[in-house]
């Protein structure tokens, strides 16, 4: 099969190629923190100047492993639940979880803009358990098609930071109202990094990351449980340890230093009441 041109994606949609590059490059390593054959297949199938995102690192692979662990735990207890992957991009979570046996009975909803959904349709296997919804995550009509009778696990992996604060919080609020008893998982960047992106965050001399106006500290995210109706509990989810400096940075005592904790990215799991 001839290579597919990745430049059909632009703006925020193109950042899915950034995360794919990091994840698949890590998956190719013999000592990689993630096993993700479909990510490797996608990376090799899409022609793109990936190095304009800078040197690959472990960040997005570690994030994916953390999301997988939380989804696996929920689906073990709710084997017929709905999984909604908001702004799924070129994530390949479904097939990683399939290897663990927890998606046999789920219905998976992949929500993203049409150019991304088109790439998924062209490059990833078709499966009756997956419904693709070509629309913005902020167009909450996607909720109307989700059967959450047996539970719902909603992911917003690499999404909320690109939204305006009122839109990000509004999406959380809408999910909490619509899916009581469900879970929602998302990641956040700290406020200092959000401010930096608004001034132009250069990943290389050829690429400036899109603005990320929504930033919050780990404690800001935990406080959602007291400020957003329907959010019963919020958990700060630690990333798995990586290699080298990534392992050192995840040393638990560091998180007791207030300045360090406020400055780090975070991953949050919400329980809806």
Automatic annotation (TrEMBL):
| MF term (GO), any | methyltransferase activity
In terms of SUPFAM superfamilies, this protein maps to: S-adenosyl-L-methionine-dependent methyltransferases
Metal-binding as a keyword of this entry, yes or no, is: no
- One BP annotation, GO: methylation
InterPro entries named in the record:
Ppm1/Ppm2/Tcmp, SAM-dependent_MTases_sf, TcmP-like
Q: Which Gene3D superfamilies match?
A: Vaccinia Virus protein VP39
Q: Which UniProt keywords apply?
A: Methyltransferase, Transferase
Q: Is Methyltransferase included in the keywords of this UniProt record?
A: yes
PANTHER family, sorted: S-ADENOSYL-L-METHIONINE-DEPENDENT METHYLTRANSFERASE YKTD-RELATED, S-ADENOSYL-L-METHIONINE-DEPENDENT METHYLTRANSFERASES SUPERFAMILY PROTEIN
Mind telling me what this protein is named? Putative O-methyltransferase OMT
């Amino acid at each position: 099969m001839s290579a597919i041109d990745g430049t059909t994606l632009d703006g925020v949609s193109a950042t899915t190629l950034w995360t794919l590059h990091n994840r698949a490059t890590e998956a190719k390593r013999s000592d990689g923190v993630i096993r993700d054959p479909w990510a490797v297949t996608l990376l090799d199938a899409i022609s793109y100047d990936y190095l304009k995102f800078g040197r690959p690192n472990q960040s997005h692979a570690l994030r994916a492993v953390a999301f997988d662990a939380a989804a696996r735990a929920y689906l073990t207890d709710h084997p017929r639940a709905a999984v909604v992957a908001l702004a799924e991009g070129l994530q390949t979570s479904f097939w990683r979880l399939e290897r663990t046996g927890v998606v046999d009975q789920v219905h998976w909803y992949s929500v993203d803009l049409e150019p991304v959904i088109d790439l998924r349709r062209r490059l990833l296997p078709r499966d009756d358990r997956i419904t693709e919804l070509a629309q913005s995550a902020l167009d909450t009509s996607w909720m109307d098609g989700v059967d959450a009778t047996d539970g719902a696990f909603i992911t917003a992996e690499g999404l909320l930071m690109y939204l305006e604060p009122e839109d990000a919080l509004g999406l959380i609020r809408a999910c909490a109202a619509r899916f009581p008893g469900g879970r929602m998982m998302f990641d956040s960047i700290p406020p200092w990094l959000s401010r930096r992106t608004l001034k132009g965050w250069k990943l290389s001399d050829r690429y400036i990351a899109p603005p990320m106006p929504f930033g919050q500290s780990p404690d800001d995210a935990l406080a959602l449980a007291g400020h957003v109706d329907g959010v019963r509990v919020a958990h700060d989810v630690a990333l798995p340890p990586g290699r080298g400096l990534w392992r050192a940075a995840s040393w638990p005592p560091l998180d007791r230093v207030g300045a360090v904790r406020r400055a780090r990215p975070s991953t949050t799991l919400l329980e809806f009441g």
